[in-house]
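HUMAN: Can I see a protein plus its fold?

ASSISTANT:
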Amino acid sequence: MQTIKSLTALLIAGLVAIPQSASAQEPTLPSGPLLGETPPGLTPKLFAPGLVSTEDAFELNSVFTKDGKHFMFSRRIDGQFKVFEMFQRDSGQWTEPRLASFSRTFPGHADVDMMWAPGEKRLYFISTRPLPGYPLDRYNIWYTDRVAGSWIDPVPLGPDINRLTQEFYPMIVGDGSLYFTAPRADSLGATDSYRAQFVGGAFDTPVNLGPSINSTAREGDIFVAADESYIIHVSTGRDDSLGSGDLYISFKQSDGSWSDDVHMGPEINSDVIDFCPMVTPDGKYFFFSRGGDIYWVDAAVLEQFRP
């Protein structure tokens, strides 16, 4: 990973070339919880090698449903990021990774950075698909509903959220409010993270999260716990960075403010790019992307950073 264009898009779009084809070796389809993987300890390890994390493709994102039977990730195909999904059958065996139907409709455009809304009926993601009145090939936030086992046509968020610049990494918390990253007039750096309260069925005006999270560098890829008790996000260009993008964590304080974010150290961060943080709905496992693969670790590792 050499160049940073965006987070996630800004962080990875300019990376060194990686072959775009899926792995030629057909992996055995797994059975059991968590794609049949043995849970990790306090040291991050590669997730589902050969099936999800492959040697000759670039993978990122890691989203499980609450029941653990639907898993989504992103993979770069023909130069564009696309959403893949896997389902666990009643027998316990998982299906092979398949391109999600909503991610097939614009093959020359990217779909990436997925997140369920509460209830897991609506999925938010970012896409460069054409949006009337907006510049081409810009990332904006869209959503699609899952109805009777099928995805409906995606819908973009309105102009209070989707501006003429770009928006990245939508994160929906327990009350339905939206966190995301974007360059705005009040940004402290190149891109900042924002929160838009969900009120009356719509998102209110986004509010900058302030200097405890944002900096004069570049922020992005923000995971927020459903109860908004902590944030994990990516920043690049800070003095303590180890690679081209590092993970930081902040906790909600008793007065409702966020603690100053803390670098997650060499146990989590590496000399490449570490990004796309996500914690499973049960709070047990912390997933993130490193380079072009997906890693996971016991979420107990987060407690060492609590003030």
Summary: Residues 1-5, 7-24 have pLDDT under 50 and may be disordered. Helices lie at 9-12, 265-268. Residues 9-12 form the longest helix (4 residues).
